[in-house]
Hints:
Elements: E1 2-4, E2 19-26, E3 29-36, H1 44-62, H2 70-75, H3 84-99, H4 109-115, H5 127-135, H6 158-161, H7 177-191, E4 197-201, E5 203-207, E6 217-221, E7 234-239, E8 245-251, E9 256-259, E10 262-265, E11 268-269, E12 274-275, E13 280-287, H8 290-303, H9 305-314, E14 319-325, E15 331-335
Antiparallel strand pairs: 1-6, 2-3, 3-4, 4-5, 5-8, 6-7, 8-13, 9-10, 11-12, 13-14, 14-15
Amino acid sequence: MLLILLSVLPLACAHPGGYTVIQGYAQGGTYAVKFNLSGVRVEPERIHSAVDSILQRVDTTLSGYNKGSMLSRFNRGETVWPNDLFLDVYAFSRAYFDASEGALDVAAGPVFDIWGFGFTTDSLPPQSKVDSALSVSGMKRLVPSLRDVLREDGSLRPADVVREGDALPRLNYNAVAQGYTCDLVASYLHSLGVKDMLVDIGEIYCEGVNPAGKPWSIGVDRPVDGNNSPGRDIEGVWQSSGDAQGVVTSGNYRKFYIKDGRKFGHTLDPRTGYPAADSLLSATIVTAKAADADAVATWAMVLGFEKARALLLSRDDLEGYLIYASRDNTMKHWASPGFNLR
């Protein structure tokens, strides 16, 4: 979890050239968008309304918690008329499924559900239930592109998406949706001419400078069990470069089960059907877009410390900060060369 380390002028004090903040509720939590009004001709109230509309569109399209969303209806086997958001997020997720060799799989909904980290609260499942869920999971069983199977009237039938087996693996976009939403809001602000912004919708996108004229600073929480209050226990502070940057942390220290003395984290390996077992406690990823940072953070947690470190070192477009437990159970950390932590 990330903590914004900067207070911003309230909406009532906004003025041409000054900073303002709009905030509200979205995706099961609160959001805050902070930006510089310099050169912007649209009133903050209208911007607030437009951002709420973007968030509402995401909810009605991609939310698995909203039973009336396009995603929920599609998962129930209903024919839908997909919008560009639905089609694009599927394509984005498929690209990461291929790149990660199945470590990031949004069609692993049945596996998430049986572990209680999806939209249900089941107890720990037996092996037979895991095997059954795996048999109806996986993007490998689905077409690479939804656009290729759209009908003449623009509709999409679940049966047309499945290319292996009979059942449709329920899609779950939790690993990418919040970051993707940050990018949508940032894109809208760009269209208004905004250059300095911080978009916080559970995950973070930032660009430019803060009201003090300095790069945005974001705190990285220390991944200790029970640390449910962002900012209570800070591991370090990341400082932005001023470029467009998505910043996302994924970890196992807030959502987990403990049974018979064994900890089961919420990061599941969709290839095995079981929680990823590794010393990696949290992964903070920085890259140009929040959607990519969101996806890679989950990918890193599935890979574990050694493979996640290798991934970060192999990519010039990624920076990361990994916190892990050593053999003697002490907390260690590793930062890629370009990760600006202080």
